[in-house]
Amino acid sequence: MNATAPAGTPVTVRLRPWSPDDLELLRRTNAPEMTRYLGGPETEEALLARHERYLRIDGDAGRMFAVVLDGTAEVAGSIGFWAQTWRDEPVYETGWGVLPEFQGRGVAVAAARAVVREARSRGSRRHLHAFPKLEHAASNAVCRKAGFVLMGACEFEYPKGHPIRSNDWRFDLAAAEGSPAAASPGNG
């Protein structure tokens, strides 16, 4: 599958662990149009520090990935999950960025479903959360389509020290894969 696949064609992706070669991908996802809902682009120094964190994160602490279109070498974006404490519960948080030329094709939804599988198989925490800004319609739609349950609006800090109004989307990693309970807000 490549970026020119016809509309409506299901997209499949694979997640490749973050590598030293992914610094340029990080720079591309730092563009103003990609960071509009994240407080804007980071400095080069901040990007280099983020890249180093992405290279180190592993195991129960989480993992960062490049999103690759299945059957190709085309890198479409990034996604990951990392350890976080939310409302006194140890959870995982997830976030993603899909490059503009791959947006609107289901890449983010496929990547979110794949990161759920990774968090379920690699980690020990029960819930995976995503916190897109209320007005970020595309990321909120990704959460819904990937099977996350909307827990409600909340105050969230991103970047650290900058409060924003976000939606709290949650996926129950302990529920059986494919089970309606995986997306039920009453499980927890």
Overall description:
With 188 residues, the chain is of the alpha+beta class. The protein has one domain: Aminopeptidase (3-Layer(aba) Sandwich). 24% of the residues lie in helices and 31% in strands. The protein has four helices and seven strands, in the order E-H-H-E-E-E-H-E-H-E-E. Strands 1-2-3-4-5-7-6 form a seven-stranded mixed β-sheet, with helices on both faces. A hairpin with a 5-residue loop joins strand 6 and strand 7. The N terminus and C terminus are likely disordered. It comes from Actinacidiphila acidipaludis. It holds the Pfam family Acetyltransf_3. This is GNAT family N-acetyltransferase. Keywords: Acyltransferase, Transferase.
Outline:
The protein has 188 residues and is α+β, with helices and mostly antiparallel strands.
Observed structural traits:
globular, Aminopeptidase, 188 residues, seven-stranded mixed beta sheet, alpha+beta, 24% helix
